[in-house]
Amino acid sequence: MPCRLVVMRHGERIDDLFPDWIRKSTSSGSYQAFDLNMRFFEPLVLPKLKRPFKYYEGDTIISEMGFVLAEMVGRGLLVNKSIPDIIYTSPALRCVQTAHSALKAMSKENEIKIRIEPALFEFTDLHPGQPKFATPEEFFEANFNIDIDYVPITTMDDIWKRNETVEMYSKRVQNLLQKLAKTHEWSKRSDGALILVVGHASTVDLAIGAFREPPRTLLARELINQGAKFPYCCTAIIDRTDDGRWLYNENALPPITYMNFSSKINRDFAMRERLT
Amino acid sequence: MPCRLVVMRHGERIDDLFPDWIRKSTSSGSYQAFDLNMRFFEPLVLPKLKRPFKYYEGDTIISEMGFVLAEMVGRGLLVNKSIPDIIYTSPALRCVQTAHSALKAMSKENEIKIRIEPALFEFTDLHPGQPKFATPEEFFEANFNIDIDYVPITTMDDIWKRNETVEMYSKRVQNLLQKLAKTHEWSKRSDGALILVVGHASTVDLAIGAFREPPRTLLARELINQGAKFPYCCTAIIDRTDDGRWLYNENALPPITYMNFSSKINRDFAMRERLT
Question: Could you give the domains of chain A?
């Protein structure tokens, strides 16, 4: 049985910063960053996919800061002796990128496998249509260390057909997490496997709720402003106790603290006139 | 004559995030990070200095995010074909660290020299006493690429003796910048040298003011909240025009935009009870 679940939200979304990022960065026909918080030295993020730009509309990339925070969490897990044995991630590109960056910070990107699990995708009703995700094989071709033999418990098409309610969504995620908490995973550790789950803001919320006593789900009204409550790369650690219960371990990982700021100069102040 | 001055504020201060960071991180006798936004894998920042911890009190280090933003600016200068020929920096450790990180992002940390110029240190009245800075030789020993032959225009001791007013401080910085704008620096470029200046929030403000028409200085009341107006790693680019005037070039460098957030989970929300 696993001994620890680490449940993490993906890194900062580019489309959250720049809703118009695709048009703005591809108007020349090829990708060009227009902000220092965007990756500069890549033709695009998934060069081997040769994906049409419009596929990124429902499936954004993460920002430079997103990579950096994911790496910080990876380093935090490393110093905390919490290197995962396996990673489960939502099929959204932002989640796969986040998982990969956390692995890179541990220098484990060629060692630890990533399993793409559609059941981890966020509440479908937040999306106008079903996003065009890359397949596990396409991710693998693009050098992500995907476990292509993994058989997910459901498919995106099936999830989409259900027209799910928030209650159904809660169950989908919490059932998966409960299942992962019981699955046998191979591990070098004697105390049990360590599973890293990379998902969305609500994934972290639902993970904490699933292992509360009594457990709780998620209500529709609680989706409002979830992104602010479970910020990018926030991480919940849930540990199995000696008597087999699971407990949210609030202080397992050091936090990431930094100032709220943008690097923009206050123009009006800088350009003020001086009467001489 | 130089063709461009790039004037940059240092990266995020650790003591701004954690006023008590020295006691908290060194209580075990050796340095230990307690937040993921602190460097983890270094005994301390200047291992070769074997500095007493208390010297850091007036001379803080920068955070992980500070390094990252400085690297982003370095990458921005690189893609912008604005690689500096020489760097002038305030003697504060946070500024030397920032300069070094910007160089690292350009892979120029063994090539471009850093000159430590006390005239770039911030307004002395902001400090309870004269900080114990590392000497250029000590920085050099600690693997910063310092130009140890550089003779600064003044010394910290001299600056401290003057009991300067804000007006004197403004003059000190602006005179230096005016001097740099006229100095001959060697450059591969045909249009003139490119000088990077790393200083404090007020350094960036004074640089913009020095090259305004008419020029302006800095008033005491304008020091309030300068850190918010000129955020960490903010960068002003000042260009020489064909007729020899200098102009603040507001859009020379892409900005760095990201969300204001901390990675802390909203505890009350996550731990809420559900009545069943």
Answer: 2-254 (3.40.50.1240)
Q: Does B35 touch chain A (CB under 8 A)?
A: yes
Interface of A with B in 232-271 (CB under 8 A): 232-236, 248, 250, 253-267, 269-271
Q: What are phi and psi of B146, to 5 degrees?
A: -85, 140
Q: Do A258 and B16 touch (CB under 8 A)?
A: no
Pairs of residues, one from chain A and one from chain B, whose beta carbons lie less than 8 Å apart: 175
Token pair belonging to B41: 């894998």
pLDDT tens across the length of chain B (276 residues) = 889 999 999 999 988 888 888 888 888 877 888 888 888 765 455 556 667 888 888 999 999 989 999 999 999 999 889 999 999 999 999 999 999 999 999 999 999 999 999 999 999 999 989 999 999 999 998 889 999 999 999 999 999 999 999 999 999 999 999 999 998 888 888 889 999 999 999 999 999 989 988 888 888 888 887 887 888 898 999 999 999 899 998 888 887 777 654 445 556 655 665 544
Question: A20-26: which pairs have CB atoms within 8 A and are 24 or more residues apart?
Answer: A21/A60, A22/A53, A22/A54, A22/A56, A22/A57, A26/A53
User: Could you give the ipTM of this predicted complex?
Assistant: 0.70
Distance from C-alpha of B185 to C-alpha of B216, rounded to nearest angstrom: 26
Q: Is B12 on the interface with A (CB under 8 A)?
A: yes
pTM of the entire structure? 0.82
Using CB atoms, which residue from A12, A217, A255 is nearest to B258? Answer: A12
